[in-house]
Design a protein that fits this description.
With 142 residues, the protein is of the alpha+beta class. The chain contains two helices and five strands. The protein is 28% helix and 25% strand. The chain has a five-stranded antiparallel beta sheet, covered by helices on one side. The longest helix is centred in the first third of the chain and has 21 residues. Pfam families: T2SSG. This is Type II secretion system protein GspG C-terminal domain-containing protein.
Length: 142
Amino acid sequence: MSKPIVALLILVPLLLLVLIYQPTIHCFPLSPERAAKLDIQHLGTAAALYSSLLKHDISQIKELHALEQTAPKLIDNVPLDPWDKPYHFRFLGGQAEAFVIWSTGSLDSEAGLIMFTFTKVNGDYKAALLQIAEQHTLLNAL
């Protein structure tokens, strides 16, 4: 037998085995609520780095787009929330140098307001989810 035929006789069964027993990977899209929570956590991390890594006064952040103007760049672009509304930032101050980031678009969703508070504890920022739905309030420490 010629070498190409032998190669085909070996490769075709192997290819069939790979196709038959290939592990299936399921990728599910994120819900808008989950996407907003991940975005806010990412933005909160960037704001914390603004303070700890770049040594900038976090109280000077008036809007999240300030995080796009840093060197080194902390974030390329501040995204819109999954409902095409901007995320908002507010510095609360105090000893914990607290700030909040929230999704305005989530107000019109079933999830209700999605807001994270970030407080400085032993030099590191800790995030807590404050989600206000129609009839109840959930507070989950992350």
